[in-house]
Amino acid sequence: MASSMQHQPASSNSSSDVDQRYAMYDEKKRKRMISNRESARRSRMRKQQHVEELCAQRALLQKEQIACNQKIDAVSQGLAAISAENDVLRAQCAELADRLQSMNAILQLWADVNETVVDIPEIPDVLLEPWQLPCPTLPIVASADMLQF
Question: Which PANTHER family match (predicted)?
Fold first, then answer.
């Protein structure tokens, strides 16, 4: 019987040790759960902040896109106006070249009738072929800065 009494306190000690271990295990588990929850909360906050930053950046980029589209429209309208003006000037140049040729023909006829010598300069090819302008051919340098206002 004495041996059974000795085992009983030992078993009660071992059960309290087990209970204590479970308590420590439960405490560690509880702390880990709290830590995980806090980490998850911080992660959600970071994600939310990142989403908000992306939304703000998207709004800013949309504003920039609208401004760029407006600039492109303005430049396109200017190009269309200049192109139309260029077409008018080419037509006027061709008309003036035709007039000059007609005037030279009349002057030559008048000189033939009056039997006089008139020095009639030839019509420059530039007026007959305006695409062959007598200017040096320099390369046109384009850059992104040209479209900034």
Answer: BZIP TRANSCRIPTION FACTOR 44, BZIP TRANSCRIPTION FACTOR 53
In a domain, 115, yes or no: yes
* Of residues 141, 112, 107, the one with CA closest to residue 123: 107
Q: How many domains does the chain have?
A: 1
Q: pLDDT digit of tens for each residue in the chain (149 aa)?
A: 444 444 444 444 567 777 777 777 888 888 999 999 999 999 999 999 999 999 999 999 999 999 999 999 999 999 999 999 988 988 888 888 888 888 888 888 888 888 888 777 776 665 555 555 555 444 555 555 655 54
Q: Are 97 and 127 in contact (CB under 8 A)?
A: yes
Exposure string over 40-64, b if 16+ CB within 10 A, otherwise e: eeeeeeeeeeeeeeeeeeeeeeeee
Q: List CB contacts of 126: < 8 A, sequence separation 6 or more.
A: 132, 133, 134
97 Cβ contact partners less than 8 Å away, ≥ 6 residues apart? 123, 127, 128
137, part of any domain: no
